[in-house]
From TrEMBL:
Gene: fdtB_2
Lineage: Bacteria, Pseudomonadati, Pseudomonadota, Alphaproteobacteria, Rickettsiales
Organism: Candidatus Jidaibacter acanthamoebae
One GO process term, biological-process aspect: polysaccharide biosynthetic process
Family according to the record: Belongs to the DegT/DnrJ/EryC1 family.
InterPro entries cross-referenced by the UniProt entry: DegT/StrS_aminotransferase, PyrdxlP-dep_Trfase, PyrdxlP-dep_Trfase_major, PyrdxlP-dep_Trfase_small, QdtA_cupin_dom, RmlC-like_jellyroll, RmlC_Cupin_sf
Name under which the protein is recorded: dTDP-3-amino-3,6-dideoxy-alpha-D-galactopyranose transaminase
UniProt-listed Enzyme Commission number(s): 2.6.1.90
Keyword Transferase: yes
Length: 515
């Protein structure tokens, strides 16, 4: 099956095995549908001219499978209509709650198997279309509050699959550096389009361990964009090198190539760029500069799981890349976690050694390493979620499109710019509010119960911990302007179209009232 968010009725394929004896078709809840089966029932002996269904469920999930014969399914809900014709036991339809359904066009001797997420509960039924429309309107009215992020929604969708995976690891008795980590490293390397992936404790360690493996340390410089989460710079400071900050491009908010060039000195050893907000940096230009000055290129891809630059995924575009699996990321774990990707076999070997106490053989330590490992449970859970990542990113893109369509061409509002060569993954949807209107917009969003965030309110050069770098206000004007003007709106795979439309309408209304 193609993993799907299943926010809408979705047709899926079930695995079938055919030989001389016949055909065997199976359905497994971990792989084929996102709920635990608590009820099974059949619909049969149907009159071909009499329709069935004519109800909706408030919370119940179902999977409908044609055991014999054929029939037509029609679903209405969320302003859309979905129709399916089922005539093979290897094909089924997943039905989330909140949809009116009708079953028609029964062939003779049709048998429909229904798998349900809960036992029978009459209170969960809505048995008239008029009542359903009223209920649906009430759900939209109840909306009136949109969280910036609700991680529990992930669990609501794939929680049972995650619990099964967690139990498998617990039963295995192996919790560090086992087969789950090896499997996930291979899967993630393949996903990114690289030869090697090394699991580490977090995204910060991914940066510092890579720099250490390159021999970068005290007295060396690494160029870092000023408008980023502070971990990019901290990873450099952690190994004794100096982060050299440069301003960002005012259009893309990623590292400014001309400023990058002017920051290079004889002490410069590497460039640590950031694919900020899930928007790829211009890697061809960066790699050209790096080659000219013999510099290493490190991609901070902590916000760019699955983002593409000219058809290639972030994490495969430099000498090495670092990912974070912090829970809020596009591919987030259930605690801290990180990954380093590279095509360099010798570097991969050294990275693995450094992250494991400087040891490649137990109790034999060849390097001054650290303890930074991705554990088995996190690896298993992340492997489970990786299967859904493309669908999640696609859903983010669809929601971002709603923002663009409803908020484009508003005075004093700048929407994200996407170069023609970029395929962003919308880790956050960050808008720029001009003419000192951000504080007013924030108060407006609060009043209308819309979540928001600011990425980031203080640029790195003005952080207290970096006073030793002796930067001052005005050194990086673009980053400073962004810190005063940007605001991130809700955008997550599990935000509904209705929620995003509500947020967009609130933002639009604000600007209509504040011209």
């Amino acid at each position: 099956m193609k993993n799907n968010l299943c926010n809408t009725p979705t047709q899926i394929s079930l695995k079938s095995i055919e030989d001389e004896r016949g055909i065997l078709t199976s359905a497994q809840f971990q792989q084929d549908f996102p709920f635990t089966i608590k009820r099974i029932y059949y619909i049969y002996n149907n009159h071909e001219n009499i329709a069935r269904g004519f109800h909706a469920h408030k919370t119940l999930w179902q999977c409908m499978i044609p055991i014999a014969g054929s029939f037509k399914l029609t679903f209405i809900g969320k302003g859309e209509k979905h129709q399916f014709y089922l005539d093979q036991p290897s094909s089924a339809v997943l039905v989330p709650p909140g949809y009116w359904r009708e079953i028609t066009d029964f062939a003779p001797n049709t048998v429909c198997l229904v798998l349900a997420s809960e036992v029978f509960d009459e209170n969960d039924y809505i048995r008239s279309l008029e009542e359903f429309k009223k209920w649906e309107q009430e759900q939209n009215t109840k909306l009136q509050a949109v969280p910036f992020l609700d991680l529990k929604r992930y669990y609501d969708h794939i929680g049972q699959e995650l619990l099964v995976g967690c139990e498998e690891v617990l039963k295995s008795g192996c919790y560090i550096s086992g087969s789950e980590l090896s499997n996930f490293e291979q899967e993630f390397a393949k996903y990114c389009g690289v030869n090697f992936a090394i699991g580490v404790g977090n995204g910060l360690d991914a940066i510092s361990i890579t720099m250490q493996a390159w021999g970068i340390g005290e007295g060396d410089e690494v160029i870092v964009p000023c408008n980023s989460f502070i971990a990019t710079a901290l990873g450099i400071s952690k190994i004794g090198a100096d982060p050299v900050l440069v301003d960002v491009d005012e259009t893309t908010y990623n590292i400014d190539i001309e400023k990058l060039k002017s920051a290079i000195t004889p002490r410069t050893k590497a460039i640590a760029l950031v694919h900020l907000y899930g928007q790829p940096a211009d890697m061809d230009l960066i790699n050209t500069v790096a080659k000219q000055y013999n510099l290493k290129v490190f991609e901070d891809a902590a916000q760019a799981h699955g983002a593409e630059y000219k058809g290639r995924r972030c994490g495969s575009l430099g000498d090495a890349a670092g990912f974070s699996f912090y829970p809020t990321k596009n591919l987030g774990g259930f605690g801290d976690g990180g990954m380093i990707t590279t095509n360099d076999a010798e570097l991969a070997k050294k990275l693995r050694c450094l992250s494991n106490y400087g040891s490649s053989e137990k109790y034999h330590h060849t390097l001054l390493g650290t303890n930074s490992r991705l554990d088995e449970i996190q690896a298993k859970l992340l492997s489970t979620k990786l299967k859904y990542l493309e669908d999640w990113n696609q859903n983010r893109a669809q929601l971002a499109k709603i923002y663009y369509e409803q908020l484009n061409n508003i005075e004093d509002l700048v929407l994200p710019y996407v170069p023609e060569w970029a395929k962003p993954v919308w880790h956050v949807y960050t808008i720029r509010v001009l003419n000192n209107k951000r504080p007013l917009l924030i108060e407006w969003l609060k009043a209308h119960k819309v979540g928001y965030n600011i990425h980031y309110p203080v640029p790195i050069h003005l952080q207290v911990c970096y006073r030793n770098l002796e930067y001052t206000q005005g050194d990086f004007p673009v980053s400073e302007s962004l810190s005063n003007e940007i605001i991130s709106l809700p955008l997550d795979p599990y935000h509904s179209k209705v929620e995003i439309e509500y947020v967009a309408s609130m933002v639009k209304t604000f600007f209509d009232n504040n011209k």
